[in-house]
C-alpha cells in the first residue's frame, strides 16, 4: 500500500553530516518503494563542496526560512526554530506517517499521524547530559546527571532550557518508535525516556567507491570538526606524523586552525568522503565524547581503511578491535597506532579486519530495516 510520508527536521540540505546523509538515503528508499515522500527542513545548514545539495528523485520538499542561530542565547534560538518548523507541519496535509529527528521532534506532534524519531545522536535526549564526560556504552548508561533529573532546574543547562526540554520529552514519549543509530544510543534512549519501542539500526547504507592503500595518506576525519569531535588533537597528531601524508577533512575548521595545519603539511580537503578515503592507509577519528555511531568510521572500514578511534559510545560496536584506543587516548597514542601499521603485513591484517567489521554492519541492511520501521509505524 502506498503511504503519504512527511519528513520534518531542523536540517537536511545541504547534507554534510552522517545524520542528514542517512535521512536522504531513507527518503530515497521510501520513495523507491512507491510511497509519496515530502520533506520540510530549516535554512541555515551551512554549505560545503562535500555536501549533498539536492533531494533524491521522487522526493518533494522545501526549505523553510528560519531564524538564525544565536550562540549567546541557545535555547531561545531552538524555540524560535522549532516554532517555524511546527507551523509548517501544522499547515501541511496530514500524512499517514511522519519522520523527524533531533530538535525537530516536537514538530512531529503537529503531523496528526503516527511518527518515528530518528536518533542519530543524543541531542533529542540531552546533549549536555550525554556529552563529554558521560559514559554511554552498550550495556550501561551513566549520563552526567544521575536520576532523578530536573531539566528545568539543571545548573548545567542554559537559561530557557525548560520549555524546550519539556517539548522534546513530550515528543519522545508520543513517538511510535525511536530509531537509534547504535546500541549505545538505544541504551541511552531507553534509560532517559523509558520508551518501550527503541530500535537500533546503524545509519549507514552503502560502501563508498574507494580503496585503502598501505602507502597512502592518513585521514583525520569528522563530519564537522568541533571540540567534542577532537579538533584540539589535530595539530599534535599531524605534527607527530611528520613525514607521512596527512589529509584532514575541512568542515568546521577555523581559519587559524586550518592555517596552522597547512604549515604542518596537512592537506585540507572539502570533498565527498569517497575521495578523501581513496588511497588512505588509516582513518583517525579522535572523538572526545561517547560518539553515537560515526558513519565516517564505518565507511572507511568498508573501503579497507583501518580505523583508529576511542573505545567509547557506539564506536566499539563496529570498529575493528585492533583499532580501538582508550577513551582518554592522547595524541601520542594515535600517532603510535598509525605507526603500528607501517609493516605491510600488519596493515593488510588490519585492512581485512576493517572490511569484515563494516561488512557485518552492512549485511544487516540497516537502511531497509529503518524503512520497514517507518512503514510499521503507519500500519500501527
Structure, described:
With 380 residues, the protein is an alpha/beta fold. The chain has 2 domains: 4-201 and 364-379, Glycogen Phosphorylase B (Rossmann fold, 3-Layer(aba) Sandwich); 217-362, Rossmann fold, CATH 3.40.50. It contains 11 helices and 15 strands. The strands form 3 sheets. It has a 7-stranded parallel sheet, with helices on both faces. Strands 12-11-10-13-14-15 form a 6-stranded parallel sheet, sandwiched between helices. A hairpin with a 4-residue loop joins β6 and β7. α1 crosses α11, α5 (234-240) packs parallel to α9 (331-339) and α8 (295-302) crosses α10. It is globular, with a radius of gyration of 20 Å. The mean pLDDT is 93.
Amino acid at each position: 500500500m502506498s503511504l503519504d510520508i512527511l519528513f520534518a527536521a531542523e536540517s537536511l540540505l545541504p547534507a554534510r553530516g552522517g545524520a542528514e546523509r542517512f535521512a536522504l538515503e531513507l527518503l530515497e528508499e521510501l520513495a523507491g518503494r512507491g510511497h509519496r515522500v515530502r520533506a520540510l527542513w530549516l535554512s541555515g545548514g551551512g554549505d560545503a563542496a562535500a555536501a549533498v545539495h539536492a533531494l533524491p528523485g521522487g522526493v518533494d520538499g522545501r526549505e523553510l526560512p528560519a531564524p538564525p542561530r544565536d550562540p549567546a542565547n541557545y535555547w531561545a534560538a531552538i524555540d524560535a526554530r522549532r516554532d517555524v518548523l511546527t507551523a509548517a507541519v501544522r499547515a501541511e496535509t496530514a500524512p499517514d506517517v511522519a519522520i523527524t529527528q533531533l530538535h525537530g521532534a516536537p514538530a512531529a506532534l503537529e503531523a496528526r499521524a503516527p511518527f518515528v524519531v530518528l536518533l542519530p545522536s543524543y541531542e533529542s535526549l540531552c546533549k549536555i547530559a550525554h556529552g563529554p564526560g558521560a559514559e554511554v556504552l552498550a550495556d550501561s548508561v551513566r549520563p552526567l546527571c544521575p536520576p532523578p533529573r530536573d531539566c528545568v532546574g539543571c545548573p548545567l543547562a542554559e537559561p530557557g532550557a525548560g520549555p524546550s526540554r519539556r517539548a522534546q520529552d513530550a515528543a519522545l514519549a508520543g513517538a511510535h518508535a525511536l530509531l537509534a543509530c547504535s546500541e549505545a544510543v538505544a541504551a541511552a534512549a531507553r534509560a532517559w525516556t523509558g520508551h518501550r519501542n527503541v530500535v537500533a539500526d546503524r545509519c549507514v547504507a552503502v560502501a563508498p567507491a574507494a580503496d585503502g592503500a598501505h602507502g597512502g595518506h592518513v585521514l583525520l576525519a569528522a563530519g564537522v570538526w568541533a571540540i567534542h569531535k577532537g579538533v584540539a588533537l589535530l595539530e599534535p597528531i599531524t605534527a607527530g606524523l611528520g613525514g607521512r601524508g596527512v589529509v584532514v577533512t575541512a568542515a568546521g575548521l577555523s581559519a587559524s586552525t586550518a592555517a596552522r595545519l597547512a604549515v604542518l603539511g596537512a592537506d585540507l580537503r572539502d570533498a565527498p568522503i569517497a575521495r578523501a578515503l581513496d588511497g588512505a592507509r588509516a582513518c583517525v577519528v579522535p572523538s572526545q565524547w561517547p560518539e553515537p555511531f560515526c558513519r565516517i568510521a564505518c565507511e572507511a572500514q568498508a573501503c579497507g581503511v583501518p580505523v583508529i578511534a576511542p573505545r567509547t559510545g557506539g564506536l566499539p560496536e563496529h570498529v575493528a578491535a585492533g583499532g580501538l584506543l582508550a577513551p582518554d587516548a592522547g595524541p601520542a597514542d594515535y600517532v603510535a597506532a598509525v605507526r603500528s601499521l607501517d609493516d605491510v603485513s600488519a596493515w593488510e591484517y588490519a585492512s581485512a579486519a576493517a572490511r569484515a567489521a563494516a561488512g557485518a554492519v552492512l549485511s544487516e541492511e540497516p537502511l531497509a530495516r529503518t524503512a520497514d520501521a517507518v512503514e510499521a509505524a503507519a500500519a500501527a
